[in-house]
Amino acid sequence: MLTGPSPASRFNPSDFLSFAQSLSTAKASEAQLRTCVGRAYYAAFLTARGRPKVEAEVRALPRRIRKRSGFHGRVIVAVRKIDSGMGNQLDDLRKLRVVADYELEAKRWPSRWKKASFLAARLVPKLSTL
Predict the structure, then answer these.
(1) d(Cα 74, Cα 87) in Å, to the nearest integer?
(2) What's the angle, vertex CA 116, arms to CA 94 and CA 68, rounded to 5?
């Protein structure tokens, strides 16, 4: 079981997406857009992580998968077991976040942000129902 603040005081992960959307103006810098991509991913990841169906699937994963995958990977695998399309979209967001955080030569940030924003805006409400 994941622990944290009580549900009444818990941070709403969708606020990360709202923040990213407010930061992504027409004049946003590369650093701002990279940050937006990361916040979009974490809005979706943290929403998924906290859902009861996802927690149950993570606990039910075979030991070999739990040992081989990091926590982010386990959550993505669990979401895929529930709905393969949502799991694939979450993984696409994760890949965009990795590029944003680690690939310093990467370009096309307005289009990368547009894709991340689109995915997260569709995914977060769906994940919140699990």
Answers:
(1) 11
(2) 10
